[in-house]
Design brief:
0% strand; mainly alpha; TPR-like_helical_dom_sf; Sel1-like; Serine Threonine Protein Phosphatase 5, Tetratricopeptide repeat; Mitotic_Regulator
């Protein structure tokens, strides 16, 4: 009986929420029709996201347009995104830029960034892209700060300056930007704009890895495996390789194959090694393809399977893998030196 009462209360509450949203919709519509710019923007959002009504992108455009024409910056920016991505209107980058510029004139940070991205992605006008993205970065937008760091790293639209890039990565990282956490680790690891410091690299890779960054998980695993910036810890290395491998990182999948094949820090497990080599091989990793050939050809595989071995040698050889080419040129009876 109690569960039905709880269900009744949940349904009743949901009905009340829906009723409240419908009431808000009516109120915003009445105010919007009287020319209230804030109400016009909110009514557009209700249609945009289906709040208290069905989603209707065309009606959303209509009300965003009305608010934008009255100078409402959020509406101008949002209308720009509709033209940018063809939402409820035909895609039109010139119209998108028109509305982004209107919002940017009011220092709308997302509009500043959007202009920069149009110049970067569709027009490939990199100095202009840098100019607009930096405006957004200066106003604190973390994604813009990261992009400025990348452009400075590679000299895109601006002279290469890895020290300045490092400064921008730090600004974005201070806001929790995950990719920036990784690239700070990389900067310390390889001495890019800052002195090499393996301990600091380890700290920043760990921050990024804990936030789910796959490449940081790979690099952190490698540091645990090799004892760089920290003590050797094979168990932690395997744990981080697994996390990266499960996100599809080829090098992590290959490394797990090696670990399980050789029994390095874990009991030797050839079937598990085959699983991870195969995952990497299926993504086109030539070394994994070659190693699979050697395993299937040897007594490590139960049963041995020369046809599967041949298949993997051929795939590796097609990518120019020298040992795979040599393996294919040998007769089946010739003993091979395995990897």
């Amino acid at each position: 009986m109690m569960k039905y009462w709880v269900l009744f209360l949940v349904v009743l509450q949901a009905g009340c929420v829906s009723s409240n949203k419908n009431t808000e919709l009516v109120s915003y519509r009445e105010a919007a029709e009287r020319g209230d710019v804030y109400a016009q923007y909110q009514l557009a959002r209700f249609y945009d996201f289906g709040i208290g009504t069905l989603k209707d992108k065309q009606k959303a455009v209509e009300w965003y347009q009305k608010a934008a024409q009255q100078g409402y910056a959020d509406a101008q920016y949002t209308l720009g995104t509709f033209y940018d991505y063809g939402l409820g209107v035909a895609e039109d980058r010139q119209q998108a830029l028109h509305w982004y510029y209107q919002a940017a004139a009011q220092e709308h940070v997302d509009a500043l960034y959007a202009i920069g991205m149009i110049f970067h992605s569709t027009q490939q006008h990199y100095p202009q892209a840098f100019y607009w993205i930096k405006k957004a970065a200066d106003k604190g937008l973390d994604e813009a700060q990261y992009d400025i760091a990348r452009m400075l790293t590679f000299g895109v639209g601006v002279e290469e300056d890895k020290q300045q890039a490092f400064t921008w990565y730090m600004k974005a990282a201070a806001q929790g930007h995950v990719a920036s956490l990784f690239y700070i680790g990389s900067a310390y690891d390889f001495g890019q704009g800052v002195a090499v410091n393996k301990q600091s690299a380890f700290v920043w890779y760990q921050k990024a890895a804990n936030a789910g960054h796959a490449k940081a998980q790979l690099y952190l695993a490698s540091m645990f495996e090799q004892g760089q910036g920290t003590k050797i810890d094979k168990a932690k290395a395997i744990r981080w390789y697994l996390q990266a491998a499960e996100q599809g990182v080829v090098d992590a999948q290959y490394s797990l194959g090696v670990i399980f094949e050789q029994g390095d820090g874990v009991a030797q497990n050839i079937p598990e090694a085959i699983t991870w080599y195969t995952a990497a091989a299926n993504q086109g990793d030539a070394e994994s393809q070659y190693v699979l050939g050697t395993i299937y050809e040897s007594d490590k595989s139960e049963p041995q399977n020369s046809d599967i071995a041949q298949k993997w040698y051929l795939e590796a050889a097609a990518q120019g893998h020298q040992k795979a080419l040599e393996a294919l040129m040998q007769t089946p009876s010739t003993t091979r030196t395995l990897h």
